[in-house]
């Protein structure tokens, strides 16, 4: 084990957090050099009890348990400085009390530095969670890290910290911004054991109206939001801040909510535990979400003051509590989900299920499989169990949980880790769900304005194309082969029986009837003399002399050219003279070929087109 005492170190501070402790290699003394890491957790929300050097580059880190309660050890938040550039180390967190947590499912620690103040997750390939035989077979969280800048101070944490001082700064800023209007009121319910404020925020615009308007209604509905009962539930503070910012905004949904309801918000119910860096407990080591049924003003002044506020509102003739929502962060499940109660009254239980269903419709990362509604004895001291048993039947009490890790995407396998913006978004969705709930039960009669949308969409620039509902099966096209497709002739004047060679088989003979002492073109001349002649039907045939375009048929063996002027003098026919037939060769019979282009190459295609030109 390395020597942890030096002139630059203030020691560990007993059972508290380490404070500027420098870890030297064995046998090294004197002033600390670069690379002798300096650990510090003596600040607000910090937690690190001990650090040991067990190898040249490996350190064992021990978490400090909650004050007066050694049972809970899971939250960590510490800084490291005096590093050397490109120094690589391995940190082993060896005394975590929860074996079942999100480190088994893609959760990794956060890190930031003084030059890069934005929190970033360590890569999953550098983080390991396993049973270590060296550490009595306990579960160990090990992660490797490389320091790239010597002058930076590096900070490691389980989740983005949200301290008590940050809350006070935020509330002071909001109070100064809204000091002229009365929709934001900040008061103090009580003082904690270490004399810290238990702040109560009231947001509404009903109090600005006259009392005559209040008497028109039987009661005014109140929504109570509780947050940060545990020190490690920093995501709950981000979610609560997102809820407050949305209610105080100029959004039309926020304006409707402020004009119709009163919001009572306790942003930090355990300020001492948050300040000390505890995991769950307060200053005296008691779980603040298990003592609601036995809380007293001396040991639990925070919970005692909140209980009195709820009872006072519930017994009032003007106000009625509709919701008590306790915001928490979960360290073993992914997503955002709700815990509720069960009732013997069926109608009350059905009414109790409405809000979780509406919330699931507004939150994309909602995990319905993690929801739970019970009435077991183990949770008898929780806030939701106390409110459903001790307050009126109209109160719906829930625990809204959001994961310390992330949420599953649509595929159900990929995990997207949460950021601060993701926690803010969940708080805004909570406000939208409340509006949807009151419209669903017909409390808000006025319709939602048309320009209010939970999600902005791009305007459509074209009309959507309608799709046919019927689906037709697309059959594959059959393969074709090359084959001849001869044209059938219907003209009976063509003789298909040729006694010539094979080349002449495609040249059918046409037989014209001519009178004796007449030329071969006498019928052609009679066509021009008498358009109504019977040869008109023959001239319209595609194999008549007028239709022949080939060059070798331009001149016939009759002394005339096709297209030249033909004498109009005709030789009269004698009726009793015999007629004879003259055979004239006509061009070859055309035929079609079906070509399979899938089987045709470029060379054969050129050859085929060349043969068509000279055929």
* Helical run tally: 13
Major β-sheet strand ordering: 12-13-15-14-16-19-17-18
Secondary structure: helix percent: 10-25%
Tell me the Rg in angstroms. 47 Å
Query: What is the subunit organization of this protein?
Result: single chain
Strand content: 15-25%
Topology diagram in text:
Layout: E1 21-22, E2 38-40, E3 50-53, E4 58-62, E5 77-81, E6 87-93, E7 110-113, E8 120-121, E9 127-132, E10 138-147, E11 154-157, H1 164-177, E12 184-191, E13 197-203, H2 211-215, E14 220-227, H3 234-247, H4 252-260, E15 262-266, H5 271-276, H6 301-314, E16 319-330, E17 336-341, H7 346-352, H8 354-362, E18 372-374, H9 383-390, E19 396-403, E20 406-408, E21 415-417, H10 420-440, E22 483-486, E23 494-495, E24 509-514, H11 522-529, H12 535-539, E25 580-585, E26 591-594, H13 602-613
Parallel strand pairs: 4-6, 14-15, 14-16, 16-19, 17-18
Antiparallel strand pairs: 1-2, 2-5, 3-4, 5-11, 6-10, 7-8, 7-11, 9-10, 12-13, 13-15, 17-19, 20-21, 22-26, 23-24, 24-25
